[in-house]
Structure formats: C-alpha cells, structure tokens
Amino acid sequence: MDFDVLILFIILALVLAGVLGFFLVQGGRILPPEKREKYTSQRDEDDLPPEDEKEAEEDGDTLVAAPEEAEAEAEPAEPEVETPEPVAGRLARLRARLVKSNNVFGKSLLALLSQDKIDDDVWDEIEETLLMADLGTEPTLELVDRLKERVTVEGTQDTAKVKDMLHEELTALIDPSLDRRLSVTAEGRPAVMLVVGVNGVGKTTTVGKLARVLVAEDKSVTLGAADTFRAAAAEQLTTWGSRVGVPTVKSDTEGADPASVAFEAVSEGIENESDVVMIDTAGRLQNKANLMDELGKVKRVVEKKSEVDEVLLVLDATTGQNGLNQAKVFSEVVDVSGIVLTKLDGTARGGIVVAIQRQLGVPVKLIGLGEGADDLAPFETEKFVDALLEG
Ligand SMILES: Nc1nc2c(ncn2[C@@H]2O[C@H](COP(=O)(O)OP(=O)(O)OP(=O)(O)O)[C@@H](O)[C@H]2O)c(=O)[nH]1
Ligand SMILES: [Mg+2]
C-alpha cells in the first residue's frame, strides 16, 4: 500500500515537473506576440511593416521579440525598408555636385576680378556673368556696385582677397539671417505640409526625399497623394513612402477630388498620430486659372481639419527666371512659406535663390542635387557660396 502511494506520488511529481517545465520553456515565446501586438498598435501596422523588427530594435525599442528571433525574422525584410542617410552634413556630401555645375560661374567671376586692371568692359562682363546665373537685375547691379567700391577702395587684385570680398557680398545678398527651418512640429497634432509647383519640377521626388529626411530624424510621417490627375502619380509616391515604411493615403479613383484626398490624408495622420503629414499635389502651370483655383481649394479644405504649417513651392533651377513668375502666382494662391530648388546639380543658375528671396521674402529651405533618394539637402548660405566660388 505504502509502495503504491509512493509510486503515485512520484508519478504526480513527474507530471507536475513536466507541466512546469513546459510553461517555463514557452514563457519566452508566449510573451513576444503580446508585445508585438502592443508594438504594432503603437506604431500602426501601415507605418512600419511587421517584418521590420530589426530596425525597430536598432531604434532601441525593447518591446520586440528576443534578439535571436528578431534577427531571424528581420533578415528578409532588410532590402524592403531602407535606412535613410543622416541629414547633417548632406550639403557637404553633395558639395561636389554644386561645385561641378557652378564652377564656370565662380571661376569666371574670380578671373575677371583678379585682373590687373578692371575697366568698364570687365565690369560689364562681371555683370553679364551674374545675370547668366539668374541673380536678377537689381541684385546684380547692387553686387557690382558694392564690388566696384571695395576694389577701388582696397585697390587689390590679389585673388584670395577678391575671393573673400565676393564671398562676403554674395553671402549678404543671399541673407544668412533668414529662418530656413521647416515647420515640422505642431502641438498635439501633425504638422501639415503642402507641396506645390508646375509640372515636372520634382514635387513627388521631393516629398519622397523629405519623408526619408524626417524618418531619419525619428519622425513618423503620413503621405497624401493629392495628385489624382494620373494614377501613376499615387503609385510613385507610395513607392517612395514604402521604402522607408511610411503610409500613403490615396484614392482608388483616377481623377478623384484632390481636396478630399488631402483632407483624408490629414485625418489619417491625426488618427495615427503622425508627426508630419505631407501632401503631394499635381503639377499645374501658374497661368491656368482653374488649376490654381483647385489648388486654393485643396488648401482651404485641409484647413477645415488642420492648420497648414508649411507650403513648399518646388522650383526647377534650370528654368531660371521663369521660376520667379511661378513663385509670385503660387504665393498669391497658397501663401508659399518655403522654396525647394531642385536640379541644382545640372545648372549654374543658382542665382535664382537670391532673386526669389528678394522679390517674395520667401527663403529657399531645401535644394535638390540629384535624382538619388538622399540627394536633398537643407540650404546653408555659407556652404552654398563656398561651393559657388570653389574652383
Ligand atoms: N538631376 C535632378 N533630377 C531631379 C531632381 N529632383 C527631381 N528630379 C527628377 O525630375 C523628374 C521629375 O520629378 P517628379 O518628382 O516626378 O516631378 P513632379 O513635379 O512630381 O512632376 P509632376 O507630378 O508630373 O508635375 C524625375 O526624373 C526626377 O528624378 C534633382 O534635384 N536633380
Ligand atoms: Mg508628381
């Protein structure tokens, strides 16, 4: 009898040990799905595909699964969601492109200014060079007058000194005191940004590049494809977004009302607690009144939901002075707060920076220096002038 009780006791003990062991081993596996659920609800499933756990882990998110598991699962996702380049030092990295496209300008100016005798003909040539760079008539005359005065007073042809003078005068013209920061923070709601401009200037590309900049700065972003003119436009934007795990709000119907898509995007951004909502719009010529009205409506409708913090006008630097007309009309319709000057890698007409700021008081905030995903840099006056005069 005693023996039977002992056997029963041993069996019970073994069963108990087995059950305990099972829970102990499973404990590590039961928890992660719960945590994963918490993680996705925090970030929103669309915001970051679930396979992207490795990157979240790199961000110091402790809510994801155990490291070995995360690594094993993250591997196939790596090519899908990219890590954008840091923003700091971008202009320095892209400087070579600016130098390459502008060094004719810088070199010829310096050569002209370093001559033994700067007569009226030389001053005319200097003026012509500045006008060719799209500096605009008024700033050109002003700059030439200032330089004339300094060269006469200081009586120098020393290239280094002349270069310093030119550097100082160009910097003053571009105005380093302007606030070029983007409004990407708003209290208790997403900051809303509208991106506008004529056809093909690089709006969608800029929205895509900028989404990467914001992701690199740990901001959550929602994109709105308010270019409903072509189905391909929404696809183009979605592709940019998905490369960095950013959701895009778009319409399934081609030709849908862009204002309602923009409104939806802002609503979605508010709901998923994004830091920034960026709305891409269709290209439109500034002289097409109905299209400009449509743009005005997009902004007004968005304003029913949220303040618009930034209206970025994208200008193609290669179109030169025409950019000025575009800027004037767009400003009247949607109150532009910043300029993105694209394609500066392919032109020596960066002088438009000065012309636009002068005429409209709107600062150039970003410059595009190539088609690559990270070829967008914050505009920095000093570095810009440095690059113009290098050579
Ligand atoms: N070289 C160079 N190309 C650029 C730059 N920015 C944009 N592009 C190119 O310009 C072309 C047009 O860019 P998109 O972003 O589609 O222009 P968009 O303004 O959205 O065009 P629409 O929506 O049709 O009005 C693309 O081939 C881009 O790669 C830049 O800074 N440098
Ligand atoms: Mg576009």
UniProtKB/TrEMBL annotation:
UniProt keyword terms in alphabetical order: Cell membrane, Cytoplasm, GTP-binding, Hydrolase, Membrane, Nucleotide-binding, Receptor, Transmembrane, Transmembrane helix
Catalytic activity reported: GTP + H2O = GDP + phosphate + H(+)
Transmembrane portions of the chain: 6-25
Region called Disordered, residue ranges: 36-87
Primary location group: membrane
UniProt-recorded Gene Ontology molecular function terms: GTP binding; GTPase activity; signal recognition particle binding
Residues given in the record as GTP binding sites: 197-204, 280-284, 342-345
Keyword Nucleus attributed: no
InterPro entries from the UniProt entry: AAA+_ATPase (IPR003593), P-loop_NTPase (IPR027417), Signal_recog_particl_SRP54_hlx (IPR013822), SR_rcpt_FtsY (IPR004390), SRP/SRP_N (IPR036225), SRP54_GTPase_dom (IPR000897), SRP54_N_sf (IPR042101)
Pfam families referenced in this protein's UniProt entry, alphabetically: SRP54, SRP54_N
Protein origin, superkingdom: Bacteria
Location(s), subcellular: Cell membrane; Cytoplasm
Subunit organization: Part of the signal recognition particle protein translocation system, which is composed of SRP and FtsY.
UniProt record similarity statement: Belongs to the GTP-binding SRP family. FtsY subfamily.
Function field: Involved in targeting and insertion of nascent membrane proteins into the cytoplasmic membrane. Acts as a receptor for the complex formed by the signal recognition particle (SRP) and the ribosome-nascent chain (RNC).
Listed name of the protein: Signal recognition particle receptor FtsY
Organism whose genome encodes this protein: Nesterenkonia cremea
Lineage: Bacteria, Bacillati, Actinomycetota, Actinomycetes, Micrococcales
Name of the gene this protein is made from: ftsY
